[in-house]
Design a protein that fits this description.
The complex is a heterodimer of chains A (232) and B (220).
Chain A (H helix, E strand, L loop, with lengths): L2 H26 L3 H20 L4 H35 L29 H21 L1 H22 L5 H32 L4 H17 L11
Chain B lengths: L11 E7 L2 E6 H19 L5 E3 L7 E3 L3 H23 L3 H20 L4 H16 L1 H15 L4 H6 L5 H15 L5 H7 L5 H24 L1
Antiparallel strand pairs in B: 1-2, 3-4
Helix pairs in contact in B: 1-2, 1-9, 2-3, 2-9, 3-4, 3-5, 3-9, 4-7, 4-8, 5-7, 7-9
The chains are: A mainly alpha (232), B mainly alpha (220).
Chain lengths: 232, 220
């Protein structure tokens, strides 16, 4: 047996192992430039797999593979440089606050004394609308229903901010985290208590069905991640 | 050379030998080739869109594509179109993989001139995925070569070999390189960059490449 044929399995295996190990390293890496360098290691592993063939054709294939890999490396590093330049330029600009458009910047000065908080509709309508949204979302179920339901909850919170003395972004953050935590607990109820209960105690299936169903509806309803991401 | 290709690609019209590289024309690849070239012409002749961006607490503003930016992006979009067109015709697995990698580079190039941080961020992550996925793509092609002794689709079409694992690797590489479903998150952000016809080229190329890869994997 030829030495190249003998080494084929080992070199292909080595190539895949190097690729997978560097993928794990990429998963742990936080720095952008190190991420890029580790990605280049994956391309070297690709060259190892091609080189494992050990024929003339493989030699002819390594060169374009290497060139294409280097070109991609250059393109991505150019992107990184551009972004660094852009970041340096924009560092002085102020960063927008969370829900900036809903927060009161300054009290508008009005000559006539209008008592906004006394208006009945500001109290009742917001609650009514959010209640309708939550109930409608519960009927819709699924992701759409969850989005509608959480829009209802968020609408209620923001409207409370207008009615009372105003609402800070700290309040919104607390509310958001509380609802997210509630959602996590409901997930645990749905999967761990409800779903596994089916298999462990099949004779009490009605109880577990009710637990799983109720927890699922509450979990999707409180899935605020559907409307967007919280950046602070 | 086996010319009796019976595949999903429709009727076989003939092949164009360029030395080592053999292009072949089927009903499917001819149509895709014409579509890709047509859109390349569209990209060459149209002006970029102006994107309206709404602002919080201020007037909305129009995003213009400056001439300097336009030149780079148009060049990259045209290169992307030509690569897509010839990837439709090529009869060589490794050649096809190279075309795919070049399309990945041009996709990054199309958005790289945009001076927006989120676009550059998305292009960076897409580039990382594209670089990682060269391993399964080229590795898959190399393993097919190792098992069958050829890379020609025309040669492979005649034989029926068990290439399941190699095909899976090849398909995984294509998925990463074009940035479809599991890796779509970065690419979706890239589409938000201003300048319509160039951005559409990214879409069109990955669409045609996905169909063509499915056709190749069913043929060999």
């Amino acid at each position: 047996m030829d030495v190249v044929q003998h080494m084929f399995n080992y070199s292909v295996f080595a190539g895949f192992v190097v690729g997978i190990l560097s993928l794990i390293a990429i998963g742990y890496q936080r720095s952008d430039i190190h991420l890029l360098i580790l990605t280049d290691v994956v391309e070297c592993a690709m060259l190892v797999i091609i080189a494992a063939l050990g024929t003339d054709l493989a030699e002819a294939l390594i060169l374009p593979g290497l060139v294409v890999g280097l070109a991609e490396f250059l393109a991505v590093s150019e992107i990184l440089i551009q972004r660094c330049k852009l970041r340096k330029k924009e560092r002085e600009k102020k960063t927008p606050k969370l829900f900036e458009e809903f927060l009161v910047v300054e009290e508008p000065k009005v000559e006539v004394d209008i008592e906004h908080p006394r208006m009945e509709i500001l109290y009742s309508a917001s609650r009514f609308i959010s209640l309708i949204l939550v109930i409608y979302g519960a009927f819709l179920t699924g992701f759409t229903g969850g989005a509608v339901m959480s829009v209802g909850l968020l609408f209620y919170l923001l409207s409370q901010g207008i009615v009372s003395r105003g609402i800070s972004s700290e309040d919104i953050k607390d509310f958001w985290e509380a609802v997210a935590g509630f959602s996590g607990i409901m997930w645990a109820l749905w999967i761990i208590l409800g779903f596994i209960g089916f298999y462990l105690f099949p004779e009490h299936y009605v109880t577990f069905l009710l637990i799983a169903g109720g927890a699922l509806a509450l979990k999707v309803g409180s899935k605020l991640g559907l409307i967007g991401d919280l950046k602070l | 050379m086996f010319l009796n290709i019976t595949s999903v690609a429709g009727e076989f019209y003939g092949y164009i030998p360029f030395g080592d590289i053999v292009l072949y024309v089927t009903e499917f690849s001819a149509i895709s080739f014409v579509i890709a070239l047509f859109f390349t012409l569209v990209v060459y002749f149209t002006k970029p869109e102006k994107q309206l961006e709404s602002q919080i607490g201020g007037f909305d503003k129009l995003n213009y594509v400056s001439l300097e930016e336009l030149k780079i992006r148009r060049l990259m979009a045209i290169l992307c179109g030509i690569c897509t067109a010839f990837a439709m015709l090529t009869g060589d697995l490794f050649n096809y993989a190279l075309f795919l990698a070049v399309i990945g580079i041009t996709n990054i190039g199309i958005v790289s001139a945009v001076k927006k941080e989120w676009v550059l961020n998305a292009a960076y992550y897409y580039g990382i995925i594209a670089m990682i996925s060269t391993l399964p793509l080229f590795g898959g092609a190399a393993l097919i070569l190792a098992k069958t002794g050829t890379l020609s689709i025309l040669e492979l079409a005649g034989k029926h070999q068990d290439l399941l694992f190699q095909k899976m690797l090849y398909a995984a590489g294509m998925v990463g390189e074009t940035g479809v479903a599991p890796f779509y998150a970065a690419k979706a952000e890239m589409f938000r960059a201003p300048g319509a016809p160039y951005i559409l080229m990214i879409h069109l190329s990955s669409l045609l490449i996905v169909i063509r890869t499915a056709e190749i994997l069913l043929t060999i």
